[in-house]
Amino acid sequence: MPLLRDTALATAFDRGADTYDRLVGLNPGYHAQLRRSARRLALGAGGTPVWRVLDLGCGTGASTAALAAELPAARITGVDASAGMLRRAGARTWPSRVRFVHAPAEDLEEAGVRGPFDAVFAAYLFRNLSDPDGVLRAVRALLAPGGVLAVHDYTLGGRRADRLVWSAVCRGAVLPLGAVTGNRRLYRHLWRSVQAFDTAPAFRARLARAGFDRVRVLPLPGWQTGITHTFLARRPATEGDVR
C-alpha cells in the first residue's frame, strides 16, 4: 500500500480525529515528550523568551498545549491541513494568545499565515509531506533572522535495533488499535512513513541543506530512545552566518 499524501492523508486524519487523542494517549510519555521538545525551543533560542510561535501540523492541539504550557508568554498560531483534527483542537479551552488556521503546510501564505516567527514547532509532520524540502525552505523564510525550528518526530536512529523496536510496537499495538477504530489505513501509514523517511542523521543533513545552521539532534528518553528525536535548527542571523 502506498503512503498517504496530501488530500488522502488529510481525509484519513479527518476520519480518525475523534479517536486519535485516546490512542496516542496510550503511548507512555507521549505528552511529556512533546513538552520536553517544547522546552528545548528555549535552548535553541539561547534561553530568551519566544514570543511568536508557529505550531505547524498542530493536529488536535497536543503540541499546541505543550507550547502554551512551556512558553507562557508566546503567541501561538496552530496550523493543520485536517479540518477534523482542528475541530478537536478548537473544542478545547485556550488562552486568547492561541489561534488556529486550517491550511496545508505547503500553502501557508495563501491562508494568511505570514512571518516573521521567532520559532516554528513541527511535531510528526515532515515525514507526511510530499515535499519536505520545499516546506523546510518555506519555514526558513517565515522565521526571523536567528529564529529557531524545533522538529519532534519519529526518526529512527539508524541502528537495526531501532527499526526492529518500531516494527514490534506497530505490529503489537499501533496496527491492532488502528484496526479497532476502522481507520486501518491511517495507522499503517504511520508505521510505514517512519520506516520510509529519513534516519535522524539523514534528517539532520536535510536541515543543513535547507539553509539552517546550529543543527542539533537530541534524543528522547524511555522506550522511544533511538526512535523519537528533537531536532533544533536556527535560521542564520545573517546570510553569511552559516555554521
TrEMBL record:
Top-level division of the source organism's lineage: Bacteria
InterPro entries assigned to the protein according to its UniProt record, in alphabetical order: Methyltransf_25, SAM-dependent_MTases_sf
Record keyword Nucleotide-binding present: no
Residues covered by the Methyltransferase domain: 53-147
Keyword vocabulary terms for this entry: Methyltransferase, Transferase, Ubiquinone
Name of the protein this chain belongs to: Ubiquinone/menaquinone biosynthesis C-methylase UbiE
Native organism: Streptomyces griseoviridis
